[in-house]
Design brief:
This protein is α+β, with helices and mostly antiparallel strands and 127 residues long. The protein has a single domain, classed as Roll (Pnp Oxidase, Chain A). The protein is globular. The two termini are 22 Å apart.
């Protein structure tokens, strides 16, 4: 019986975070961060609250990443979602999954509008 990526993702979809191992754009060294995620079919979607963060710039430059969800690893490429509508869909999925995260994201956006922080939302798709 062949196990598909969708089968593997369904087993870990309810986990709250994953680890992204990426290559630093300046150092060339591997770095790891922990982020929220959503599984959508055979894709993993990663929300980004600030697209100017170093890890985001590194992954945009070198999209080869390894995602680790519990004991399951997914090596491959991440693609930054350029389309505003796609990013909005990821945001809605994150709000549904995390419940508390949705209002928190909305608060970050509101504070940024008043100059009290940075909120430049984006998202990666991993397939």
């Amino acid at each position: 019986m062949d196990v598909t990526i969708g089968d593997r993702l369904r087993k870990v979809a309810n986990r709250s975070t994953l680890q992204v191992t990426h290559i630093g754009r300046k150092s060339g060294k591997a770095h790891q961060i922990t982020v929220w995620f959503v599984v959508h079919g055979d894709k993993i979607l990663l929300p980004i609250s600030n697209i100017d963060r170093n890890w985001v710039r590194s992954v945009r430059k070198t999209p080869l990443v390894k995602l680790s969800i519990g004991w399951v690893e997914f090596p491959g490429n991440a693609r930054f979602l350029e389309n505003h509508g796609d990013r909005e869909q990821v945001g809605a999925m994150i709000q549904r999954k995390y419940r508390l995260g949705g209002p928190g994201l909305a608060l970050l956006e509101l504070l940024a509008r008043f100059g009290l922080g940075t909120f430049k939302y984006g998202a990666f798709e991993y397939r």
